[in-house]
Input
Amino acid sequence: MTARAIARAVLVAVGLAVVGVGAGLVLVLAVLVAVEAAGVALTPVRTIAVSLVFATGLGFGGVAVVYLRTRDLPVAYVGIARPSWGDALAVGAGYLSALLLVAAAAAVLMRTDTEAAPNTAAQAGLADPSVLVLLMVASLVIIGPGEELLFRGIVQRRLREALPAVAAIPLASIIFAAIHYLSLAGAPEARVVSISVLVLPTLVFGVVYELTENLVVPALTHGLYNATLFGLLYLTVTVDLPM
Output
């Protein structure tokens, strides 16, 4: 593979991520403006629901569909199939690996007193636990499928056309983690720390996709991982533990 082909693949991958985020932002802003103009109150739950549906769902999904049609590629390009028993094992192993990696990273941050940036959606959930319930459900039906369709099914797959898995998976993971900069709150340094931690579970999603070639596997792994984190946060907020 030539250097030119590799550079083109990387540029296309980054461009797809940027366009996906941009399309999602435009859709969300348009809907929020329309909703507010209609006199509907924008509660935290409604605002996040709009963001999930129109950014992660229609924004990411729409860019993926347009890309496939532009290149005249079939849906089979991203690899969607009913999970086998082997796929189910991959989901379980990936889910546990992602949680363990993030737990280890969190322990290191605590021991080194390193500040990480909080997720804005999680912050909203601290104020209104119903947001966390929405996020738990959305993790499985919108977040996991939507993000994995674009970033594993399209971005990582495009990189794999020019690069070996050992290079394509980390690169796709970095691109995916970087686009979360806008969804974080706090100082730029703290955001970089959070993005660095986010790369870890994302690497797992990329690996299980590479091994199974079935997009359903990373979508489920990602969804379960997110739902668990939001669920733990929900318990922290709502359950009074004895001192």
The mean pLDDT is 93. The longest helix spans residues 3-37. Residues 66 and 72 are 10 Å apart (CA to CA).
